[in-house]
Amino acid sequence: MRAAVFKAAGQPLVIEQRPDPTPGAGEVVLKVGRCGICGTDLSMSDGSGQTFEPNSIVGHEFAGEIVAVGPGVERLRVGDRIAAMPFTGCGKCAACLTGRPNFCAQFRGMPGAFAEYTTTAERVAVKLPKSLSLADGALVEPLAVSLHGVALAGLRPGDRVLVIGAGPIGLGAIFWARSLGAGPIVATASSRQRESLAVQMGADAFVLPASANELPEAAIAALGGMPDVVVEAVGKPDMIGRAVNCVRPAGTVMVLGFCARPDSFVPAVAVWKEVRLLFGMTYSLGEFEHVARVLDRGHLEPRAMITDTIGLDALPGMLEALRHRTHQCKVMVDPWSAPH
Length: 340
Ligand SMILES: [Zn+2]
Ligand SMILES: [Zn+2]
Known about the structure:
The chain is an alpha/beta fold. It has helices spanning 39-43, 94-97, 134-152, 168-179, 195-200, 215-223, 239-246, 267-273, 285-296, 315-321; strands at residues 2-6, 14-17, 27-36, 56-57, 61-69, 81-84, 87-88, 108-109, 117-121, 125-127, 161-164, 185-188, 205-207, 229-232, 252-255, 276-279, 306-310, 330-333.
């Protein structure tokens, strides 16, 4: 099969021939239909912090059709269309039994979907409802990250919410905050490029203050008060400090941005306000399934986040281009689309 392979930090992915995967016990092989490019694909390949394993195939936001099932697979069949969590665990410990294999002692990452085929574990796979396309299926993973964050923040109906960052995770947080009854919801980002997307996803307003110092006032003006919850969805240094500066006393800062560099903020500001500072990591299997159900019920606004669909050959160049400000939002890879 053809696959996009990570070689080393600072180097573009390389398209290589790899053996077709075979399923192990409890595993299925799927023909990848779509795999989204994620911000962590950028940050874990630029050498700034945590880095992918050399010679690994990455790509963790995927959906596809099952072409082979391994021994012990009970629920899934060849031909089923699935999305799957890109990691698994032992299946027996407390973490696994509550749907959080990312906390399992035997945690095993299972990305690998920037390729024609990939392997996944049955126990982390979700069958896609018929109404959903494979592109919808590949949106389940990033939407589950946002859902988990909003749920962890304990968002309540009527809460004032400020979302910093209008990439797919921030946009997803807006979508879930809206569907959980929060509001007003205000988005902010470093440019107006995603303003209309933010509004489509449920934001009441978008603010672009002239400087970070002006963000709290701009947010208060747009929200009619200090935010109860601030979602940090940028993942760059200084963003936690900004969120702490904005949030109301005893409010919640939910960090979903994946910043692999050291960061600093003034703890005293957070102490004065008694800020609840939370960090979110992925999602539970239940949340993953919930996303598919919500999309199936026709809440398909997140489709608007998909701005581009490219083939495998265009992926290395696209990944490099996305390191700079571009017009794209969620870029999907279709490993089977003809090269051009
Ligand atoms: Zn991701
Ligand atoms: Zn486990």
